[in-house]
Amino acid sequence: MTRPRSRFRAPLNKEALAFSSSLAVDKWLYREDIEGSIAHVTMLAQQKIIPANAARRIRTALQQIRREIDSGRLRLPAPGADGGRMAADDIHMAIEARLIEKIGETGKMLHTARSRNDQVALDERLYLRRTMKEMHALLRGLQRVLVSKAHAYRDVIMPGYTHLQRAQPILLAHHLLAYVEMLERDRGRFADCLRRAARSPLGAAALAGTPFPVDREASARLLGLDGIVENSIDAVSDRDALIECVSACALTMMHLSRLAEDLVLWVSQEWRFATIGEAFTTGSSIMPQKQNPDMAELVRGKTGRVYGDLVALLTVMKGLPLAYNRDMQEDKEPLFDAVDTTAASLSIMARMFQTVRFIPSRFEEELRSDFLLATELADYLVRKGVAFRTAYMHAGAVVRECAGRRCSLTDLPLKQYRAINKKFEADIYTVLNPRVSLRQKKSSGSTSPAEVGRALRRWSRVLGHSF
């Protein structure tokens, strides 16, 4: 906190003031700061701590200041502009200074029964509330795009991968819906964060509370919050709500990074499973043939940046004694950066994925080129009464035989199948078909057309959209 003028004779060193100023960062909290101040001064009047007419003047002036900043008419003062120790070195003092400039002594009543410690804690929680709503909308937007693509290509079969090696045939829609599920958990994490963040620290003051008869619950209701942070020390000294938000951002970015990596692979000349619209790709400064998936690569790269924001926040808070410490001023840059980066990544991924076109013929080529149905051999034998581990070994022997002969599973003669296990019969060839393989999947949430169709219908209801 900036120290009061009455305690010190000398002004704060200019370099120290510049070093400690947070105005360049926390100025983005001006809407939340004004919203919190309006609620605070309203409560002060309701409790008869300040006169009702003074509260009205302060509210009117604060609303004017908000419009001034919104329109750009008000330029926030540079740190130390007034030359004193109560200089406008953060957004809270900048707004208060402008308030006093507009209405004089009455404006000085605003800070009654409040510290900048509970003030900034409130501003950040209000910011989180706004952020969570934006994240919800952005996550839903990307989910709608992915579900739309899944509907459009619902009959396309692709190789499923483990270890980046072809594993089993799956529906492309099933693959895309896996990301929709991941994003739904991300949405849930932001919603959980909001439930814990939507509590008011106002009234905690610096750390010990205030002797004035404030109504903390009334302030919370005025702000549309769900209640108060009960312990006054906890209210001003923790930033776990911010850390939880950035953690949710990091997990969201991890999922986006994986989707981006899939896209980078799919559009490569080596895979050629898909294309991205030209509006979301770039060329080369020297190689005219290039069409690079830069937006996907940037999402992948920015993930590390958000991870860094999370580590920065955790490190700032590690080992801090109760209650407030100036270290906590460093919480805003990583918070804002993580939120802005995640929001931008969600937006660009949704817009880019709308332009993605898949190439079903390429998937079909890959389905013919490997032993993707080897697991069907083992399952076939199990249905004939063979223990799974034995069936697995015999299916592996079939694959080894085919690899030696350089032929596919369907080209291997029946007598070779029966030489490995007498349970193999002529109907083995009927199961060696990707669509038959998909239809035979019985488990809930599998890649069978019936289960994928059920999932698509469920997501249509959840997203409130008919695809």
Short note summarizing the structure:
The chain is mainly α and 467 residues long. The chain is built from 19 helices and four strands.
Structure report:
The strands form 2 sheets. The chain has a two-stranded antiparallel ribbon. It has a two-stranded antiparallel ribbon with strand order 3-4. The chain has 3 domains: 5-112, Fumarase C, Chain B, domain 1, CATH 1.10.275.10; 117-365, Fumarase C, Chain A, domain 2 (Up-down Bundle); 374-432, Fumarase/aspartase (C-terminal domain) (Ribonucleotide Reductase Protein R1, domain 1, Orthogonal Bundle). The longest helix has 37 residues, at 116-152. It has helices at residues 14-20, 23-26, 30-46, 52-71, 91-103, 116-152, 172-197, 216-222, 232-237, 240-266, 294-317, 332-354, 360-367, 374-383, 388-405, 414-420, 428-431, 434-439, 449-463; strands at 157-162, 165-171, 274-275, 357-358. It has 467 residues and is mainly alpha-helical.
Q: What order do the helices and strands come in, and which of them pair?
A:
Blueprint: H1 14-20, H2 23-26, H3 30-46, H4 52-71, H5 91-103, H6 116-152, E1 157-162, E2 165-171, H7 172-197, H8 216-222, H9 232-237, H10 240-266, E3 274-275, H11 294-317, H12 332-354, E4 357-358, H13 360-367, H14 374-383, H15 388-405, H16 414-420, H17 428-431, H18 434-439, H19 449-463
Antiparallel strand pairs: 1-2, 3-4
